[in-house]
Amino acid sequence: MAATSDSAPQVVGLGMCTLDMFFVVPEIPDFGQGIMATAYMRQGGGPVATALVTLTRLGVSTRLIGSIGDDDEGALIRDELRQEGVDVGGLRTTPGARSRVALVLVHKDSGERGFAGRPETCPELQPADLALEEFGDALILIIDNASPATVQAASWARARGMRVVFDGTWTSEHLDRLLPLVDVPIVSVPFVRAWMPGASPRAVLDRLWLHAPQLAVLTLGEQGCAVRSETGARRYPAYPMEAVDTTGAGDAFHGGFIYGLLQGWDEIHTVRFASAVAALNCRQLGGRTALPRLQEVARFLCVQDDLQPLPL
Amino acid sequence: MAATSDSAPQVVGLGMCTLDMFFVVPEIPDFGQGIMATAYMRQGGGPVATALVTLTRLGVSTRLIGSIGDDDEGALIRDELRQEGVDVGGLRTTPGARSRVALVLVHKDSGERGFAGRPETCPELQPADLALEEFGDALILIIDNASPATVQAASWARARGMRVVFDGTWTSEHLDRLLPLVDVPIVSVPFVRAWMPGASPRAVLDRLWLHAPQLAVLTLGEQGCAVRSETGARRYPAYPMEAVDTTGAGDAFHGGFIYGLLQGWDEIHTVRFASAVAALNCRQLGGRTALPRLQEVARFLCVQDDLQPLPL
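Above: the input entities. Below: the structure tokens describing the complete assembly.
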């Protein structure tokens, strides 16, 4: 079932693929009400998928393993990823299945978002669907969910000496099996809300640290991020930014963070780079539209005051 | 610019074309919130366009004059109309322009709707864009807006002995020039809200009647409709219906009403038929999905108590 490619991806991702429909609105339309949107666009999404697009824009070769339907939406998802340069040979297309779509309502001024997703009917990938050779000589695996398939993928990746990055977007009953296999968990506020409701950033990082990762990260939106390493825990502020749309900011952060890991940078430089990529991605509507090229990140960092760690 | 076809449409429509994206939701997603939609679908819309699809399902030949962009959305709009059998030779495609899209949030249980539309960038048709020969030997013109182009089209239609039906969805500064050219105005509650805020159904019909139409109709959703003719004004209830989605109910009513006009039926039979078409269209998600064939309407009417006029 798995198609392999001759290219040698540096990063392999296993995750959800969506087609996102963005409507920019002055307010949320209530039932019985009609309002005028100020913009509309359609773009592929999904945490790992967008992180891989981030990496390809930065010049890193990537491959996506995921599941789509054989509908128009699936074709749009695949074509867009291919255009971005992501190796889509690992995308499974299920005949008769429908691809996942999501509505994203973006506030005209604040860039705040509301979501409605449709549960896709294309099947979730199972461990038996995976093939070891799809990993090639990749250095990093990124996953956005805890499932039997991602647990399988993570354990294979660890056995091959790859590093495993977990973009913690959703929690599940498989999480406790996954976390010991993760080198860098990067979790978000919605994840924490489900996993440790009401917990402080410090408590979240401490719990992640129990599984002995290399680094543990909690992203905090415009509050930046909190990081735990062997030397303790710190918070880094975000770069100040007039956000047009914050969609994909977290995914862009993941992509940027992985870029830093690939370079072997230390924590502070990796966080600065990832924060810059995330900030730049908020410049335009859509989760991928404004993902920067490497020289844009460099230019941005030249004119910004360096982010300094704060006590957590 | 105008393409003409060899077919001889009985009804020509000049109106807006949209691509509607339906998300069925348990609640409206607020900013900062994510919810799960229970269904998603994509379908062409627009008042006149959907009325024409209604008519083609009932066996009437139709032609649509309208404006779309040369984007994917425009292609979907055109292909779907063509599949339904609507003559799309009069659809103008503007290079580089974007088609109109609309978000429709449908309440999971009640079928209530909230809208957000994007203003299209494809140009509104102007009088100079119209060609008299596009009307062929059609008997009825249907329009959904008061604009210089629809005023032009209506005056041509009247000069050729065609009847003009106005699907009053939006008001504009051209309305006073249009109304004297309209044989059957059928207006909706949102139209009235803009045109005569707070007015009673009776007052709305009386004002429409000043322009000497053949019949004047005000649709009232699940309250049915109010009709003014030479013999006075009446209200007709709607057929009782468990609505899955009320999108397109008004457009379906228009299509059914025009069907009755073409048959030369009297008011009560035309209203019953139009009401049955509208009720049947609410059975499924989407403005066009459940538009009935003629024999479905006949079957429906066989098992329903006849709608009886009530005093207004």
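Note for the figure: The radius of gyration of chain A is 19 Å.
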